[in-house]
Amino acid sequence: MQIGGKRLRPILVLISAEAFGEKPKIALDAALSVEVFHNFTLLHDDIMDQAPIRRGQATVHEKWNVNTGILSGDVMLINSYQYLESYEPVVFMELMKLIGKTAVEVCEGQQYDMDFETRDNVTLPEYLKMIEFKTSVLVGAALQMGAIVAGASKEEQQKIYNFGIHLGMAFQLQDDYLDTFGDVATFGKQIGGDILENKKTWLYLKTLEIASNADTTQLMQLYNKSVNDVEKISLVKTIFRQYQSDHLIKEQISMYSNKALALLESLNIDKEPKNTLRDLVMSLEKRNQ
User: Fold this and answer.
1) 60 with 69: CB under 8 angstroms?
2) What span, in angstroms and rounded, lies between the C-alpha atoms of 134 and 272?
3) What band does 112 get if pLDDT is binned at 50, 70 and 90?
4) Are strands 53-54 and 57-58 parallel, antiparallel or unpaired?
5) Are 166 and 256 in contact (CB under 8 A)?
6) 2 domain residue, yes or no
7) Per residue in 118-160, pLDDT tens?
8) Domain for residue 280, yes or no?
9) Rg, C-alpha atoms of the chain
10) What is the C-alpha to C-alpha distance for residues 85 and 102, in angstroms, rounded to an integer?
């Protein structure tokens, strides 16, 4: 946690609390809960992915061992619940229900992601459900937690949660796009990593949907055999571009962004936080890292 990151989720908790008229300081424990929970998921994901590095440093299981990594993640999950104990009983119960529901969905999303590695019949709707559970529900929960702390109505809580779902979907699809078509100098990691790992992303699944039989066969073969890394990335990107999947995913990102903006405009919240959230959505499609 000391090596940083975007800190998007805890910041959203604080912005949401302020948007509904509460001092951000009151939501600090909820923000800490979300950030510790998020890092717990990263720690366990790294074990399942056998990832040696996270943000340029050795992962916990690599630095110590797998058992220590598992137990450390377990304690972080418990810590994320303990941070919520500072709130009054009614607020505490609402926060616990939400983070418990979210925890189950995040685990389901991770299971979907692992299942997809060995399946050749993954569909686009299944992929979208996977990224909703693995990524978006925690973004939505962060915003709703801020609303709960601030005493917002159930209707407003649901709206800002749904805003977060659409924001998270757009964010993850932009990540998919950047992983394949980004600039290595600004993206900060290898371009084409998803392709080399044979990940069935939106770009891959959409292209399979619309490609000719010959190109579908070639694409599936590229994902099922060892090819020179540079050649593989180049060939896959060529097929994606041939069917304009790079443009189609941008349209999908815009669709989710527009849904988020529509929900934001319907929220009865303070002007300055609303503008901050609007700027966040607008900057998402321009994000290059």
Assistant:
1) yes
2) 30
3) very high
4) antiparallel
5) yes
6) no
7) 888 899 999 999 999 999 999 999 999 999 999 999 999 999 9
8) yes
9) 20
10) 18
